[in-house]
Design goal:
Number of strands: 17
Radius of gyration: 21 Å
CATH topology of the domain at 55-361: TIM Barrel
Number of helices: 14
CATH architecture of the domain at 55-361: Alpha-Beta Barrel
Strand content: 15-25%
CATH superfamily of the domain at 55-361: Metal-dependent hydrolases
Distance between the termini: 37 Å
Largest sheet: 9 strands, mixed
CATH class of the domain at 55-361: Alpha Beta
Shape: globular
Structural class: alpha/beta
Amino acid sequence: MTESFDLLILGGIAATPNGIAEADIGVRAGRIAAIGPLGGAAAPEVVHARGLHVLPGVIDTQVHFREPGNEHKEDLETGSRAAVLGGVTAVFEMPNTDPPTATHGAIEDKLARAKGRMYCDYAFYAGATAANIGALGALEKLPGVCGVKAFLGSSTGSLLLSKPQDILAALKAGSRRMAVHSEDEERLNTRKDLRVPGDPRSHPLWRDVETARLSTERVLRLAREAGRRLHVLHVTTEEELPLLAAARDFATVETTPQHLTLAAPECYERLGTYAQMNPPIRESRHREALWKAVREGLIDVIGSDHAPHSRAEKDKPYPDSPAGMPGVQTLATILLDHVNAGRMSLERFVDLTSAGAARIFAIAGKGRVALGYDADFMLVDLKKKRRIENSWIASRCGWTPFDGMETTGWPIMTIIRGRTVMRDHALVADPGGEAVRFAETLANAS
């Protein structure tokens, strides 16, 4: 009797827990039901993937989709469209919206907005404030919530925890891994005069290495005191890395494609305020230190920190220009280009973009090409060369700092829970994203 599936992927080079090798994959009811050989099987949809790599879909654990409050920059629909065009199958969206995602009602509102509008799967961070510390333990347990996010340095509105006693109280208020933006607010305020009007090259001088190091040293100390697992977002400095290496029993580490690819002062001279982000792009010694941390296993995950702004906003003279740049659509190809250049292995790419996220946040049933897992795939042509162009950026902002850069290695198909969403750089399905489930809150999931 012929074995039947909903979807067959035949002849691809699959990245499974057993290694990277040719394998057929059968999908049934949105999950991986068999891993080859399956030449005699049948399915209504068959993908012939010879010459392509079948990788787990990218899980981008740091995006800002700006809804509600700033939909002129981005919204959940446009941001998720950019995600799937870039091979991303799930995103964790940040709480610095307007109003901030800091209450039960705000979280429910985001989940309602996402349903039927987002192309990829999704989860939302609950934002920590000095006023909602007592509620964080309940908020982090809600379905569709990936954890708590705390901004320790300048942020939007009330989403700022700068006092040590507030940071410690927030760390003690819950049990899931807490994510932090780590810059020291007091030092940022005392150094504002170092910003040179009209010169974004002064951005990393203002938000200097010590601003990051001081904050990371403090939050690691407080997390250890609280007995809380910590995730330090977008690490940028060589000086933070030894501190994080000494805290591997409870702390995990993220960096971004931007900080692995761009370097000061060249990026500011070429891109101006379009290179401005927080924490800043720094000089090349930090970039090389981050690559060393990638090779040594200190970096656990790479997130895009997709943070779009309109051209009109970015064209304002520094420091009136906002910090942030888009990245969810280019994350995979930028990193695959680094794979082709020999800076990391394909196995390391998979770990940093899918398996690492699943491990850090205890995602249920995602992040691996393995039996029983969600059928989330990014099919990649590792040899394909293509030039990144502003004209095809799906984000509402319509630009990328990588405009004009030719990269080798491109996602050409995105499959989410067995459903083909992107093929040959074009959307081929309606929005069908669902909330990501987590092992620590499965009992609360609907």
